[in-house]
Structure formats: C-alpha cells, structure tokens
Design brief:
291 residues; mainly alpha; 15 helices; globular; disordered C terminus
C-alpha cells in the first residue's frame, strides 16, 4: 500500500478510535457517580474479554497462538497501569486538570517510538505534538492545583499510555488487531479482578448498562487503534488522539449543555491544525485549500 494511503488510513482509524473513546467517557462519567473506579476498570476489561471470546473460539486454536507472549503481557501491564493512573487522577484532581494528563500521551509517543522502535523523529512530528498539547490546555484550562505531587501520577500515566501505544505498533508486525485487544482485555481482566475481593458489590441494571456499554466502546476503540498503528508509524499519527477531547466537548454540549468558550474553540482549532500537520504534505495542502 502506498505510504500516503497508509498514513491516511491510519489517521482515519485513530480518529474513529478517539470518537469511540470519548463516547466511552460519557458512559464512564454517568457510571462513576455511584460505582467505584476499581469496579469500572474491571468491568471495562471483562466486557472486552467476553465480547471477543466467541470470535476467538470460532477461530480455533490458531487464534491463541502468538509469537510475542511477553510483549502482550508488557502491553497489558503498562496499559492497565496507565488506566489506573488516569482514574486516580480523575478521582483526586479537578476534571479539567485530569483531562490534560489523559490526552497528553501523544507528546511522548514520538520519543518512545524513537527509543524502542527506532522510528525517526522529524521536527514536524514534535511541532504537531506540542501544538495539539497547547490545544488541550486551552480546552481544559487547568488550574494551579494541577501542579502538585499528583501531577507525577498523571504524567507517569501519560508516559505509560504512550508506551502501550508504541507496543501496539510493534505487535502489529505479527499480530492481528483483534488478537492484540483480546490478550490485553484478558490479561487486564485477570489482574484487575484481584481488587474485586475487597471492592465488588452487586450492581443495579442501570449501572450494568453503563459499564457494559463503556466496555464495548472501549473494545472497539482499541481495535481501531491497533489497526491504525498497523498502517503508520506511531509518532506520525499519534496527535490524532487529541481529537478525543473535541469529541468529548461535543458530547458535553449535546448532553449537558456545556458550551465551549472562546479559548476552548481556539484550542479545538489548534488540535485540528496538529492533525493536519500529521498528513502527507500534498494531502495537507489539499485539505487547507478546501477549508
């Protein structure tokens, strides 16, 4: 497949993943009013495992055969650690501050991809990541409370998420997107089940609907993400993850009448510019001309 075509497909799939992730956030927000974060994490992973298990069983033994079991384990460990870190930040920081950490992982992706996959870092990739992060700051408008010891938790989670994304890129060389997501959900379910000894309780029907819906959206988001990194280098398409904050803002406007202010609109524009910087130069010029 031509490089430009692969890059466009990677960006499109990662954009779809961001939309599904933001939609998942709506259900997580609704569920978090009454459900503990540890249960939310467990149900998210359990739903994904149960959703993909029938497909895996239909495929037979060949589906479970992997050339990189340790890499699957590593991807699950860093991804789950990032998930717990983000939830912890959301629980102990103002939501606007937590959002900055949740959506800042693209800044680290080029560096991690260079360290572990030897992918070249271009100045344009760094500019795109920084422009997108500035957009996130303008949308979220974090307060001074962000700059305390909890910031270490948020930054560490962002770095771990970047490592998980880059590991997915490496796995796509030999593994299918569905197998990558299945092993992530399976391993994460086993690990996140341990705290259920202390935290599990009976859930209401409404809570189950929210959590199963969130887990389903998260699973499809992960599949799109895995396919995206199979098409293009992680550092080149990573800023597309910033679109999640725009989609989240649209949902907040539609469901809770949270109208974005001028700074937020400027931030969204910067995120779109970051995405355009990821496109091949010829396609970027066409997009800007049409706009």
């Amino acid at each position: 497949m031509p490089q430009h075509s692969s890059l466009i497909k990677g960006l499109a799939l990662l954009s779809l993943s961001a939309f599904l992730f933001a939609s998942m956030g709506v259900l997580i927000r609704l569920a978090s009013h009454t459900v503990d974060n540890t249960i939310v994490v467990f149900m998210r992973n359990l739903t994904g495992t149960l959703l993909l298990l029938p497909f895996a069983l239909i495929q037979g033994r060949a589906f479970f055969v992997t050339q990189k079991p340790l890499m699957h384990l590593w991807r699950a460990l860093v991804g789950l650690a990032a998930m717990y870190g983000f939830f912890y930040a959301i629980a102990h920081l103002p939501l606007s501050n937590a959002m900055v950490f949740t959506y800042s992982s693209p800044v680290f992706i080029p560096l991690v991809a260079w360290l572990f996959l030897k992918e070249r870092i271009s100045p344009l990739m760094i500019v795109a990541a920084m422009v997108g992060l500035l957009g996130v700051f303008l949308v979220a408008k974090p307060s001074r409370e962000m700059f305390n010891w909890l910031s270490f938790v948020g930054i560490s989670s962002s770095f771990l998420a970047a490592m998980a994304f880059v590991t997915v890129r490496a796995l796509t060389q030999t593994e299918s997107a569905i197998r990558i997501v299945f092993y992530f959900c399976l391993i994460s379910t086993v690990i996140s089940a341990i705290p259920m000894y202390w935290y599990w309780r009976a859930l209401s029907t409404q809570e189950v609907v929210y959590l199963v819906g969130a887990g389903s959206l998260a699973t499809f988001s992960q599949i799109c993400l895995s396919k995206a990194y199979g098409y293009a280098p992680a550092g080149k398409i990573g800023p597309a993850n910033y679109l999640a904050i725009i989609f989240a803002g649209i949902w907040a406007w539609l469901l809770w009448q949270e109208v974005p202010d001028t700074l937020a609109l400027v931030g969204m524009l910067l995120i779109f510019i970051a995405l355009l910087l990821c496109l091949p130069r010829k396609d970027s010029l066409k997009s800007l001309t049409k706009a």
